[in-house]
Structure formats: structure tokens, C-alpha cells
TrEMBL record:
Binds 2 magnesium ions per subunit. It comes from the Bacteria. It holds the Pfam family ADP_ribosyl_GH. It comes from Nesterenkonia alkaliphila. One of its GO terms (molecular function) is hydrolase activity. Keywords: Hydrolase, Magnesium, Metal-binding. This is ADP-ribosylglycohydrolase family protein. Mg(2+) binds at T55, D56, D57, D255, D257, T258. Its cofactor is Mg(2+).
Length: 316
């Protein structure tokens, strides 16, 4: 029972860490030269956002969570319909309207409206933005809670909006890292155990293994999925606790909210919910609802077979 409660702390930390990192990075997303020291007001959007408000990263994670919890399985169509509701109606937005939606996500939602099914001959895109990994925690938490296939569900989740081989590989690798981080954290394992295996993309795995050896000046805090993974992993491996790493991650600047969200998932999984600063958690917009969703995901007992809109998928 104690072991189950301990693992739940790390699974919930993965989800709340996402939202915390997103909200920390939001005020300096873009080219803002400031360095944040905690939850702050501001941001690049025309909306006036108070401290603790989160962006598209958390909104999409909530859409994905709602689908998993209400459908009792991963349902491609339902997930995309919820993303579309967020984009069109502000469903699960912290402000009631959609903002900060990425270009690759916007295009994927437009394609879904006209042609929901994706055939085996559908060409892959060369674009590989970080939107595929910024929202990943719900899928990994659900899979770990029920003993499911983290890698396969991660890939399926990523390709919904990022139909690119590199994005798919990156999503699978990040799912593996989140699984290893939660397990290592719960068992008192070393950080180094979270490094990914070569998997389907040995070159990407090698680059991530070398991330901790870089200086901040050698990192590129862009929206490219590999840059984001590298920045988040660097912050995680070179800091002593959740808070220090979170500030290192978001203060790289650039796509600060998503780098923060990706770092937050990884560090939250490793350190656990209770090691995320209570002040930051308490500052989060709608924290009690975020906590409810995190606990519901971590408490799942089963998932039915997935429903996919991709012809190439063979549900297990």
C-alpha cells in the first residue's frame, strides 16, 4: 500500500509539474530578457495574465486527460474533437479563450475537420515541433497506472498533431524517459537511469545523453522538439531539486513555457508531487481541478483497447 501511494505521488507530480513549468515560463515566452524567480504576472499575449495562469501546454493536457477518463481508453477521434473545442471555444483554457496555439497543431486540427481518418499512404511532414511532448503526461500516467504500453500510447498521442517521424520518435523517447523517471524516483534510483535507450532513433538518444555536458549558451531554446528535449534534460540533470531546475529551464528563454512544461513533467515524475514547491502549486490557476485530474489519472484501474484514426495502427 505504501509503495502504491509512493508511485502515485510521482505520477501526480508528472502532471502538476507540467502545469507549474508552463505557468513559470509563460511570462518570459518569446524574446523577453527577464529572468523569473517564481510565478509572475505578464506574458507575450494580448491578454493580461496573472501569476499562475497556464497556456496551451496545460490546456491540451487537460483535453487529453478528460478524454482518457471519460472514454476509458485512448480514442483518437475524441481527443482531436476536444482539441478542436479548445481551439474554437476555449474549452479547458485558463482564460476561457484559446491562445498560444502552435502552427502545427492548428494545421492538424484543420485537416481533422475535413478528413478525420489518416490513410497508410498519407505523407509525413518534415516539421517536428514540441507540441507533441508538451502535453504527454496524461498518456504516460494512464499507461503506468494500468500497466499499459507507454511507448505505443505515446507515439499515438504525438502523431495526432505532429505526423512526423522525428516527432513520433521524440514522443516515444520522452514517454520512456517519463516512465523511467517515475520509477527511479519512487525507488530512490539515480537520475542517470532516466536516459533513453537507442530505440527507434539512436542519433536522438545519443544527443540527449550528451545534453548535460553542454553549457546554457550551447542550448537552443526553440520550439523544435529536439532542442526542447535537450534543454529540459539539461536543466534536470544539472540541478539539485525541482525548483532550481525549473528556473534554469524557463530562464533559457525562447519557448520558455513549453521548455518549462517538458522539464516539469520529467522532474515532477522523478521528485514527486510533494517536492514541487507548495507556493508554486498553490499559485496555479484552478489548482484543485488540476490536482483532481492528476489523481484520477493516477488511480485508473483499466483502459479498454484504443480507437485510432490512423490506418497504420494495429491496436494491441
Amino acid at each position: 500500500m505504501l509503495e502504491e501511494a509512493l508511485m502515485k505521488n510521482h505520477l501526480m507530480g508528472m502532471f502538476i509539474g507540467l502545469a507549474v513549468g508552463d505557468a513559470l515560463g509563460r511570462p518570459i515566452e518569446g524574446n523577453d530578457p527577464r529572468q523569473v524567480q517564481g510565478m509572475e504576472d505578464g506574458g507575450p499575449f494580448s491578454l493580461s495574465l496573472p501569476a499562475g495562469y497556464w497556456t496551451d501546454d496545460t490546456s491540451m493536457a487537460l483535453c487529453l486527460s478528460d478524454s482518457l477518463l471519460e472514454q476509458g481508453r485512448y480514442d483518437s477521434y475524441d481527443v482531436m474533437q476536444r482539441y478542436s473545442r479548445w481551439a474554437a471555444q476555449g474549452y479547458r483554457s485558463s482564460t476561457g479563450v484559446c491562445f498560444d496555439i502552435g502552427g502545427q497543431v492548428r494545421r492538424a486540427l484543420a485537416d481533422f475537420e475535413t478528413a478525420p481518418e489518416v490513410g497508410e499512404t498519407e505523407p509525413r511532414t518534415e516539421r517536428a515541433g514540441n507540441g507533441c511532448i508538451m502535453r504527454l503526461a496524461p498518456v504516460v500516467i494512464a499507461a503506468l497506472a494500468v500497466g499499459g504500453d507507454v511507448g505505443w500510447l505515446s507515439r499515438m498521442s504525438g502523431r495526432e498533431t505532429h505526423y512526423s517521424e522525428l516527432a513520433e520518435h521524440a514522443t516515444e523517447i520522452f514517454g520512456e524517459m517519463l516512465e523511467r523517471a517515475a520509477t527511479a524516483g519512487a525507488q530512490g534510483g539515480r537520475k542517470e537511469s532516466i536516459y533513453p535507450s537507442a530505440g527507434t532513433n539512436p542519433e536522438l538518444a545519443r544527443r540527449l545523453h550528451a545534453a548535460a555536458d553542454k553549457s546554457a549558451e550551447e542550448l537552443t531554446p526553440s520550439g523544435f522538439v529536439v532542442d526542447t528535449l535537450e534543454a529540459a534534460l539539461w536543466a534536470f540533470m544539472t540541478a539539485e531539486d525541482f525548483a532550481a531546475g525549473a528556473l534554469k529551464a524557463v530562464n533559457l528563454g525562447g519557448d520558455a513555457d513549453t521548455i518549462g512544461a517538458v522539464y516539469g513533467q520529467l522532474a515532477g515524475a522523478y521528485y514527486g508531487l510533494t517536492e514541487i514547491p507548495a507556493e508554486w502549486r498553490g499559485d496555479l490557476h484552478d489548482y484543485e481541478e488540476l490536482l483532481r485530474v492528476a489523481e484520477a489519472l493516477a488511480s485508473l484501474g483499466s483502459l479498454s483497447a484504443p480507437r485510432t484514426r490512423f490506418a497504420e495502427d494495429n491496436p494491441r
